[in-house]
Amino acid sequence: MRSEEGCQLGRWWCPWLRSIITATPGRSALPGISKQDIREQIWDYMESQNLADFPRPVHHRIPNFKGSYLACQGIKDLDIFARTQEVKVDPDKPLEGVRLLALQSQKTLLVPTPRLRTGLFNKITPPPGASKDVLRKCATSQGVRNHSVPVGLDSRVLVDLVVVGSVAVSEKGWRIGKGEGYADLEYAMMVSMGAVSQGTPVVTIVHDCQVVDIPEALLEDHDLTVDYILTPTRVITTGCARPKPAGIIWSKISCEMMGRIPILRSLRSREKQAGKDVTLQDEHQHLPEPHSQHTAPPGTVRRPRDPPPQESGPVQAGDVPSNTVYVGNLPRDTRVSELKRALRGRGAAPLRLTWQGLQHRAFLHYQDPAAAQQAVSCLQGLHLGANTLSVALARQQTASDLVGSCAREPHPDHCPTI
């Protein structure tokens, strides 16, 4: 067993946090707990106990924890690492030690491109005769940018080992990420490319305090599970029998996500030609014409001066659609892009956003009431600047909350466009 100062808690870390996640060890989880609840408790605990390294705070990140390099060394204890040739390692800071070990072992290192903006992978190619110091730089995020070449869909890639970051993971192999879904999507895309199979092992590297009981009810069919967990004190073989994602589940992909991930569009085109059902999450809805003066397509922002939709009078609380979320107490200088980035960080990106910056609020429009309610849960406690945002279903706001400031504004366009 390995040990390091600050990691003495080991398996039975933080009993009060375990009690939040499970009523009693070995029993079922408390009702109503969500993935976001678990994330928040992990992040809060790591900050309060000073278990995190740069970058901080760890909230909305895959936490870089003290002892991450030590935990990464545990991969050398796995026989699968010695047998691998191509290793896919996420770009998260706590996985830097594994990226370095892969390079030092002369393995092919594949790192996903940030948020999949420019493709799926970058292959790291160190300079010939690179010293250990140079390899160490190649393992950093800056080194990945400076010493890599893109890997396209047509490249013959066969990944032998997948290493992902986590916010929380259970000894059964059930994993929770930071809420954006990129690790799950990357794996599904690799399946679609034929780069991985159900037998490809998946490893995650976390602090001991991130190993918690996770209710199975929280798992969905697109969630990636792990086969090994490395911490500063333990190497855990999960024996997870739950199937990993068998490919991209297009019904869970939104039009907004398609718009910002070009390689996803390419994969969808290929699978459509192959005769697969590639209907998107929100594609079945009746989408307005882009040129309509009263509507906007999903993923767009309606500015305050855009003509409002057809309305016969003041907005009444009962008229507000049940799939709409109110976000208030926005800082005076907040930009639309800042709010959208924060929403994505919580995994709550809407189909459409109505911006009312002069009134320090916005309205988020989701696919259905269930998605709106889930967004409200995910966005509780969200901060922008020094402000804690007010988040609720818009229908729960009173009529005066929704229209009270309209009388003070010179333009009726500033009334809620919902």
Descriptive notes:
This protein is 26% helix and 14% strand. With 418 residues, the chain is of the alpha/beta class. Among the domains are: 68-237, Rossmann fold (3-Layer(aba) Sandwich), CATH 3.40.50.10420; 250-283, no CATH class; 324-393, 2-Layer Sandwich (Alpha-Beta Plaits). 40% of the residues are buried.
Total number of beta strands = 17
Q: What fold name stands as the CATH topology of the domain at 68-237?
A: Rossmann fold
> What is the CA-atom radius of gyration, in angstroms?
23 Å
Which CATH-level-2 architecture of the domain at 68-237? 3-Layer(aba) Sandwich
Helix/strand order, N-terminal first: HHHHEHEEHHEEEEHEEEHHEEHEEHEEEH
Approximately what portion of the residues adopt beta-strand conformation? 5-15%
| Proportion of residues in helical segments | 25-40%
Which class do the helix and strand fractions yield? alpha/beta
CATH level 4 superfamily of the domain at 68-237: NagB/RpiA/CoA transferase-like
- Number of helix segments? 13
Whole-number average pLDDT? 79
Terminal Cα span = 58 Å
GO molecular function, one term: RNA binding
Domain RRM: 323-396
Biased composition (Basic and acidic residues): 272-292
Region (Disordered): 272-328
Q: Short description, anyone?
A:
The protein has 418 residues and is an alpha/beta fold.
Chart the SSEs and their pairings.
Blueprint: H1 15-21, H2 35-48, H3 68-73, H4 79-83, E1 86-89, H5 96-104, E2 108-112, E3 121-124, H6 132-138, H7 141-146, E4 148-151, E5 161-164, E6 168-169, E7 175-176, H8 182-193, E8 202-205, E9 228-230, E10 235-237, H9 255-260, H10 262-273, E11 301-302, E12 324-328, H11 336-345, E13 352-356, E14 361-365, H12 369-379, E15 383-384, E16 387-388, E17 390-393, H13 399-403
Parallel strand pairs: 1-2, 1-5, 5-8, 8-9, 11-13
Antiparallel strand pairs: 2-3, 3-4, 6-7, 9-10, 12-14, 12-17, 13-14, 15-16
Helix pairs in contact: 5-6
